[in-house]
# Entry
Amino acid sequence: MSETVTDLQRIGIKLYCAEGVAIQPHVLVPIFHRWIQQHSVEQMLIDVADYEHVPEGPGVVLVAHEGNYAVDLGGGELGLMYTRKQPVDGDLATRLASLARTVLYAARLLEQDPGLGGRLRFRGERLALFANDRLRAPNTEAGYAAFQPTLDGFLRRLYGDAGCQVSHPTDARDRFGVRITASAPASVDQLLARLS
# Structure
């Protein structure tokens, strides 16, 4: 049986920080340790690793059984990234919604964390989605064409009638991914409400 982009399970999402946020990723280490101790998210959290020394790297990673959270510095832009490792039931649209809820819930916890004092904010209108599976999601025009109908439905659910600019880098050496910018601002809470 041939597997396609609609069978994709290992997917990641990055939610970008608001402009002007200049927090250092290592500040999140004790917060992520507290998440492990207090079972703050509905995943089996395992450990925290500090990679802040890696230029444009993952910053700080919170390892979970189901996926990894990271305060990511990739592309020179700070954001919260979640990469799913374990399969999720449902079709691709259901898996994208689950992925978005996971990163948005974590973003809300960070925005509301008293230890951060409101210094960490996210721009709900800017996202990146990427695949960690070159077999099911080749970075080709055909791969994007197969993904686009599900992406369009996901963006309508997330942003309603707001227009979205979607860019898809086409270098086949890179993993498949899209960057999304909605035309209207959106808060983390607004997006979570739309996905509930």
